[in-house]
Design brief:
There is one protein chain. This protein is mostly helical. It is built from 6 helices and 4 strands; from the N terminus they run ββααββαααα. The chain has helices at about 55-60, 65-75, 90-105, 110-120, 125-160, 185-190, and strands at about 20, 50, 80, 85-90. Strand 3 and strand 4 (about 85-90) form a beta hairpin. Helix 1 packs across helix 2 (about 65-75). It is elongated.
């Protein structure tokens, strides 16, 4: 025999994020006593909150265009669509986008991030692959630091060899521009 469960009007309806929708409609706000109240005020209310692209973007700090781009190139799975055609994302998309942003902060490329997510989506541990990608990134950073160190030395040398304020222009070349032009170009200009 079923028991009647009175409606719980004293519990507040949790607010939805802006531009979010519920996947199941709630029951009227003033239901009378019923056999089982499945409305938003019920403890057995199980509807998932779905986020529109703009609500998802607001949660993770990305533009709607960026989210649609991630969906198109596949680090983010395709969203379900509302009857009106709006993209609707589940809550796990928030965590996935935060992972993407964090990986990008360390310099990983979207292709590499997608590889990690595919490994995780298959239920495997991406730790070994992640370590290999991070080692590769360290090597790239070291190479970039060496390149920047050489550039800094070259710039310092240019400043040390800077002509005095009274140096005149010779044959169409300003002395202060000499270091900015490749030596071969400089020879051509002097002829």
């Amino acid at each position: 025999m079923r028991q009647s469960v009175p409606a719980r009007a004293d519990l507040p309806v949790p607010p939805l994020p802006m531009n979010a929708t519920r996947t199941e409609p709630s029951l009227p706000s003033q239901p009378g006593p019923s056999e089982l109240d499945l409305g938003a005020n019920s403890r057995v209310y199980t509807a998932r909150v779905m986020l529109t692209v703009s609500a998802l973007g607001a949660r993770v700090g990305l533009s709607a265009d960026t989210i649609r781009y991630y969906e198109r190139i596949r680090p983010l799975p395709q969203a379900r669509r509302s009857p009106a055609g709006y993209r609707l994302y589940e809550e796990d998309a928030v965590e996935r986008l935060r992972f993407i942003k964090g990986a990008q902060r360390f310099g990983l490329r979207l292709e590499e991030i997608r590889e990690l997510l595919e490994i995780r989506d298959r239920g495997a541990c991406p730790c070994g692959h992640t370590q290999m990608l991070l080692q590769r990134r360290i090597t790239e950073v070291d190479q970039e630091l060496a390149r920047l160190g050489a550039l800094r030395s070259e710039l310092t040398g240019m400043i040390e060899d800077w002509p005095g304020p009274g140096m005149a222009r010779q044959r169409g070349i300003w002395h202060c521009a000499g270091g900015l032009i490749e030596p071969g170009e400089l020879l051509e200009a002097r002829r």
